[in-house]
Amino acid sequence: MSLCRDKTCWTCVSETDYWPILSSDIQKHDDDGGRKVPSFSAGVRLVLVGKTGSGKSSTANTILGQKVFDTRVSSSSVTQYCRRACGEFRGRHLTLLETPGVLNTHQTAQETLKESRKCVSLLSPGPTAFLFIIRIGRFTHEDKEAVRQLKQAMGSHALNFSVVVFTHGDLLEDAASLKHCLIDQCPDLAELVAECGGRYCVFNNQMSKSKEQVSELLVLVDGMIQVNKGSYYTSTMLQKAEEDLIQELLEERRLLNEREELLQKKQEEAIKKWYEREIEMVQQKSRMEMEEGKRELEKQLEEKLARDREDTFRRVMEENDRKEKERKIQEMVKIMDIRQEEEEKREVLQEKLDKVTKMLEEQIQREAKTKQEMEEKMQRYRLESEKKERERELQQIEKAQAIRQREEMMKELDKLTQSLEEQCRKEEERKKLMEDMLRQEREKNQREREMHMENLRAEKKMTEAVTQELKLIKMRIEEHRVREENLKRKLEQYLQRDAEKCEKELCAPKKKPEKRYSQMYNGAIRKSAEIQSTVTTAAGYAQEMGLVGLNAALETVRTPCCIQ
């Protein structure tokens, strides 16, 4: 806790990593005899949001009138967590919350947005206004992305509680040039200002002692409070924004999974066809090489066997010739001596011939066995060579296919990202158009309801007038009915007296001519009939006049009916 620059109020600063935790200095306000700080639910509660390096800390220091936030120059966000500060300005209690910078920070976007969402719980019962801090200059793609992330974190309805604050006002000649040079020239920035209800102001933090710019900001905030009828941004709105964001992410994830599954199926089918073709070509090539190798080996074996047989036969023949020559010489020298031994020599020679024959047969069998072993060894070597060659080729193919697949997936992911961004932009445009249509429809319905209420009030007045007229007509009909009953009663009395009179005259003792009595009787009957006709005509006239009045009243209220 410390005094402000003007030494007129106390300023409280607290910093938290996750949830609101009051510092020990704040908790000791009442214990050390200092002035009490108003509760967080009173006064104006402001949240400063914006891109890293936009000047949030400097703006907060300018509003509070002293340096309570760190404003050193850094390549990353100086503020890593939500920080809160309290102070007073011209008798009004101010509570400021600075959020971590968006983009250009070592934190991930999810962590930064998570810190930004904590402002609702840190400023209980909820922020009065959000201050979008934007540096004067070119409105870049990073600025657009920062605004998009903030709208995604807080919900689009948070713009109803927002004011755009442009920092580095010393770069402008006057405030009027801001709208001409920056807002009117950038459609995205003009759209942001329009979504915030046209509320914006310029801050020159180099002139922190100037209180006019703070007063201008508070005037905009007060006007926004009046427009919002004293409401503020609540946790319910934040929860609704998070639910909408979760639904959008789930829908995007579902579409992305479907596209990945479809792409994976296509790739698997292509890889399968390519493998089948490669395996078929390798098998065909292997069969041709095996047949050619087999023919070559058989030819070499046949040539070797033929050479071996020729050598063996030649050696045997030479040995036989040599022995024969020696035998002939011995016979010539000892012809007499060896006659007796001739049979023995012949037997020995026969044994030698049998041995040679047997040796040749064994040699042929060994050569056949050697040939078979060589063929089996060649077959095993060929199979092992083919297997190693296929494995090596398959590894190379899989490696090349994986590289191509990764490149294609990266290209597809880039296309999908661009498509999603375009879809989000179109969705925002469509949402804005729908909001305009809904607002026009509500205004039209309001006008129709007002016209309908006017018609209903007019009809009600006419209905009351007709009701009064109907009551009068009913009273007149009742009077006509009473008169009719009186006339009928008088007529009956008159007819009764007339009948009694006629009866008395008929019963009188005087004798009068028949013709006179007949004329009197006929006259009485005619008179009675005339009276009856008069009464009936009078009653009918009264009823007809009542119906005429009733129909006239119904026609006055425009009722499509008639009573006859």
From TrEMBL:
Domain AIG1-type G: 41-242
Keywords of the record: Coiled coil, GTP-binding, Nucleotide-binding
Superkingdom of origin organism: Eukaryota
Pfam families: AIG1
A GO term, aspect molecular function: GTP binding
InterPro entries, A to Z: G_AIG1, GIMA/IAN/Toc, P-loop_NTPase
Coiled coil ranges: 238-307, 332-497
Similarity comment text for this entry: Belongs to the TRAFAC class TrmE-Era-EngA-EngB-Septin-like GTPase superfamily. AIG1/Toc34/Toc159-like paraseptin GTPase family. IAN subfamily.
UniProt protein name: GTPase IMAP family member 7 Immunity-associated nucleotide 7 protein
Species of provenance: Channa argus (Northern snakehead)
